[in-house]
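=== RUN LOG ===
request id: a7f3
mode: sequence -> structure
chains: 1
length: 399
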Amino acid sequence: MKLFFWKRKTAGGPQKKKSKVREWIDAAVFAIVVATLIRTFLFEAFMIPSGSMERTLLIHDYLFVSKISYGPRIPMTPLAFPFANHTLPFTKTTKAFSTAVQWPYRRLPGFGNIERNDVIVFNYPCGDTALYSKTGEDVDYYRVKRALTPDSLKLFYQDPIYRPVDKRETWIKRCVGISGDTIMVVDGQLFVNGKPGFEPPHALTSYRVRTGSGKPFNDKQEKDLSLESGYGVGQDSSRYLTYDLTKDNVALIKKWGDTVQPDPKIQIRKAIFPGDPGRFPWSEDTYGPVYVPKKGATVQLDTCVLPLYSRIITTYEHNQLEVKGDKIFINGRETKAYTFKMNYYWMMGDNRHQSIDSRFWGFVPEDHLIGKAWVIWFSFHKSYKAFYIRWGRFFTLIK
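=== RESULT ===
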């Protein structure tokens, strides 16, 4: 048998020079590894695509989200394309991850705990199942299922696809209720544990406005009101228009001599969580009370209360749930109570009349939390009228 011995190069021996291509490859790999570690364990960049948090956050605000505030979450789906969420860049339907390896939820220690009214980025709780339309549009399966018949689903959409927790869409909202809180909304006013909840000073609310001329605000008035994307909608026979305004905006409009009044959202809809208007005749402005589950807490169950917590029991905490008449069975055993395995949170947008939030899809489990919104590092405005950079928002802390 012939043996081969590799000669070890001495420190003073000749070194083979790397080619330019090899140097570029090494540098790229090193950069990807470092950036991935920073993105996973320290902070990550996000962009605000909608107005649900106005005016705390504006469309086209670019921000950093701190992973170390609550402790970085260990990836649950480690086999994934770098810097992609659930779909490969420049494609609409190609998965950017593999579920061949799935790790349990774990989180490293952080600098603090989640506090009431923190602005948080999280994975969309109802994003476990999604649909692609024939044109590649990505939509929420549960919302579409409620609106269409099974035949219509097959006609317009492809088969449902499953996404693991850390590969679901990312959303940003304010955590108005932490584990153990009781949430209620009365005439548009948020109450937490029976006391008035936090109202962001620059939050937007829908108002009905009738100007003296009967026309929408002109360009100067829109500028004075900072209505970057604001415009009157829903004008009726009484010449009222609907605007999203701050309290300061309302005071200014009254000085102009125009009529302004709240536009309450009182319509009871099936889209409102838990999607049972017969038992829960709630709306965006009249909601609750709802208990936000805390790990280790036990809630008494019956068929009236069950719709609030059935998704927690089945989807988030992976139990088998069955209802026979007025009896509830969990994992084959009849029960009248349930003890929660995780902490949950209640999220709402600051622009509460233009926000799809926990009032529509319920609780956010702790394993869906990504991090705390930290600082705005870039911002611009773009519309059909103008484009400009919002210099005053650069490097402002998010509160």
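=== NOTES ===
Residues 205-262 form a domain with the Alpha-Beta Plaits fold (CATH 3.30.70).
The chain is about 15% helix and 25% strand.
=== END ===
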